[in-house]
Specification:
Layout (H helix, E strand, L loop, with lengths): L12 H37 L3 H27 L9 H39 L1
Length: 128
């Protein structure tokens, strides 16, 4: 988790919101980078211990999805600062909506990842 950036009372609300969003996206990126590394290990564990073609394919697909989400979030992270130039509520709403869409994609991906990870561990334990 990245250290938080202090907010100052003289800062406009829009600046504070952008800082908050940048910190949040940074945390999402950290999580997905860790997930990327963990998926490498999970694929190897599955290969060595289970040899379940369907589970291996699911993990491999999840690894690809994780990479796509990472790419999209890095791209989005680079555009957050553009919200500072908004001077209409429509522009503000566009960036707010974009952030919420990215949050939803991140949360849903993490839920899917955790579910598949739990299934893998459950299969390993059932073999013991």
């Amino acid at each position: 988790m990245k250290p938080t950036t202090p907010f100052y009372s003289h800062e406009p609300d829009s600046s504070i919101m952008i800082k908050k969003d940048k910190v949040e996206v940074g945390n999402w990126l950290d999580d997905l980078e860790y997930t990327k590394e963990e998926l490498k290990y999970l694929l190897e564990i599955e290969h060595r211990m289970l040899n379940n073609a369907q589970l291996y394919q699911t993990l491999h697909e999840l690894k690809r999805e994780n990479q796509l989400h990472l790419r999209e979030l890095y791209r989005y992270d680079g555009t957050i600062k553009n919200a500072l130039e908004c001077d209409t509520t429509e522009c503000d709403a566009f960036y707010l909506d974009k952030h919420e869409v990215n949050r939803s994609l991140y949360v849903n991906h993490l839920k899917k990842y955790r579910d598949i990870k739990s299934k893998l561990f459950s299969k390993i334990l059932s073999q013991s």
